[in-house]
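User: Predict the structure for this protein chain, please.
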Amino acid sequence: MKKYLIGLLFFLFASNLNAFSITIYISPSGSDTNQGTIEKPVASLEAACLLARNMRKSGALSEPVEVIIETGTYVLGKPFFLTPEDSGTEDSPLVFKGNREDQPVFSGGISLPDFEKVSDSLWKIEVSEIKNFGGNIQQLFVNGERAVRARTPNAYEYFKTKSASQTLIGSGERNWSRFGVHKIGLTADQLEALKDIPYPEFEDMIVSIHHAWDRTRKYVQRFSMQDSSIYILGRPMHRWNTLDNSSQFYLENAKSFLDAPGEWFLEQDGTLYYMPKEGQTIENSTAVVPVLDNLVIIKGDKANKVQNIRFENLSFQYTRFMMGRQGNEPSQAASTTEAAVMADYADNIWFKNCEIAHTGTNAIWLRAACADSKVEHCYFHDLGIGGVKIGEKRAPAGKNLITRNITVDNNIMRSAGSEFPTGVGVVIFASSDNTISHNEIADFGYSGVSVGWIWGYKESAAARNKIIYNHIHHLGWGALSDMGGVYTLGPSEGTVVSNNVIHDVYSYGYGGWGLYTDEGSTGIVMENNLVYKCKSSGFHQHYGKENIIRNNIFASQWKGQLEATRVEDHLSFTFTNNIIYFDRGILIGKPGWEEIKIAADNNCYWDTRTENILFREMEMKEWKKTTGKDIHSIIADPGFVNPEECDYTIKNKAVISKIDFKPFDYSKAGVYGDESWVELATFDPAIAKRFDWMVEKREKETTETH
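Assistant: Here is the predicted structure, written as C-alpha cells:
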C-alpha cells in the first residue's frame, strides 16, 4: 500500500508539473543542498542543472526551464560542463538568465593577496603556492585591466632582427626536417638590453617573433655575446614564411625588462612584482590570476547532441593561456587555440546579451557538428587571441556533421591579440550557411573576418556564408603582414560579402588589404562595401576564380588602390560599377592586373592630384586599347561630401549614373539597437590616436628607408 501511494504521488506530480513554476534560482549566498527556490536558491550552475534534469525526468515540459542567476561573482573551480542530459526541447529550452543591467559574473580567476609596497613605483605580492596556478602564472589582471609581462622594447614597439638562419636536424615525412635550431642575430642596442641579465633568468626568457602572417614564440635556449645571437628550437620554418632580417620581435619575462607602468614579473621563488599605473594605489588595486582554460564546455557526440540551451545576460571573465616549455609554433589565425566557451555536437545554442572578457584565448568556438545557433548582442573585449570561431579546420566525413547555420549578429568584438596577435574577429573554417552581420570588429592584430580553410581549388565546405553590414577597422597595428578586413580562402560558392565598412588596416610589410580573396577563392560576391585607409590596397586577389567585385567604394588607401597577383587561364574575377578614389599612392599596385583575365568595366576612377591617372604605366586610352579592360569606365570626381573626414556620401549623382553605380547606405554597418549599445560600440579616440601615430611612424620609416 505504501509503495502504491508513493507511485500515485509521483504520477500526480509528473502529470501536473507545468502547474508549478519551473524556475530555478542561483545565488552567491545559496547552497547546493537547497531546493533552488527563490527563498532557498542553489549556489552553482551544476546544482541547477541537476534540478533541471530531475524535472525533465518527472515528465514532459512545455515551457522553458529558467535558471535565474542573482547578480554577483561566481568563481568557478572547473569549467561548467553541459552534456546531452542537459538538453532542452524547442518548446522547453534550458535558459540561464541573469540581470541585464547588472550581469552576474562567472570567473575563472583567483584574486591574489594585497600588494605590498617596495617603492613608489614598484609593488609586490608573495605568491607562495605557485602550484595552485598551474605551476606558473602567465597572465595577470589588475583592476580588470590586463597587465603586460615585463618586456623589451615596451608595448607597441619592436626590435628588428639583424639576421636570421636555421640549422635543420633529422628528416621526416616528405623529406621535411623534424627539428630546427633558429639563430637570431642581434644589434648592438639589443645586446645592451641583455648583457646584465643573470644566467638563471635566461632559462625563462621568451622571444616573440612576428614573420609574415605568423608569430613564433619560444623560450630562449641560448644567448651568445660572442656571436651576438640568441637561439631557439622548434619546427623548421616553411620556405614561404621563414624568419629573416625583416622580422620583428620582442623579448619578455626578465626582471630587468620591468621598467614601465603596467608591467609585471614573477620570480622563480614566487615573488610577483608590479609597476603601478598612474592613479593606482595599493588600497584601490586588486590583482587576479586566471586559472581555467575554459569556462563553459558544451559537449555532445554523434549519437546525442546537446540541444536547446540559452545563455542570457551573463558575463564570463578570466581564462588563461599557458605556453609550455616547447613554446608556440607559427599558427595562421591561431587556428588550433581554444576558447572560453567551447561547443561540439550542439544544436540551437544561443548566447544573447552576454559578455566575455579578459581571456587568454578566444571568446567562443562552435566547433564540431554545431547547427542553428546564435551569438547575438554580446560584448567581447580584452581577448587574448580572437572572437568567434565556427566549424572545424577539416570537413567531417559526413555532410550532416558540418557546422552550419550559425548567426553572429550585432556584437561588439574588440581589443584582441595580446597572447596571439594572429587571432581573428570571426573565423569560419569548414562551415556553411552562416551569417556574420552588424558586428563591430576593431583593434585586432590580424584579419577582421576570415572565411574558408582550403588552399587552392579542392572542394570546400565553406559555402553560402554571408558577411554583411559589419564595421571592421583598426586592424594589424603594423605588427603582422598578409591580412584583410575580410579574408577568404578556397572555394566558397554562394558566399556574399556586402554592405560592410572596412578601414584602417595597416600591416607591417606587405598585405594590409580591405577585401582579400586569397588562394583559390571562388564564387564570392563582394558588393556595396566601403573600404578606405588600408595600407596595401582596398581590394586584392592573390588567385581565385569567378569572383564578383561590384558596386563598392574604394577610397584613400595608402600604397595602392587595387591589386591582383596570379595569372590563370580562367576568369579570375569581375570588377564592375566600382568607385576608386585616391589622394596618395598609385592606382594599381602589384603587376598582374593588366595580364590577369578580369572582366573590368563601368568603373569610376578619380585621383585628386591629377586627371592623368596611370593604369600601371598606361594612360586610360592606352589601357583600354591594350588590355580591353574598362572600356566604359570613366575618370571623374564622384563628389564625396567630405572625404578628409571619411564622409563618402556621394553628391555627384550624374557621374555615378554613367557607371550604373547604385548608392548604398553605409551608415547601416555596425551594431544597432538602443542608444547605450550603439554608444558602447564607439571606438576609443585614444586608441584611434595611437593607431594613427603608429601609421605615421611607419610611413616615415618607409620614406626614410627609400
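Residues 25 and 38 are 6 Å apart (CA to CA).
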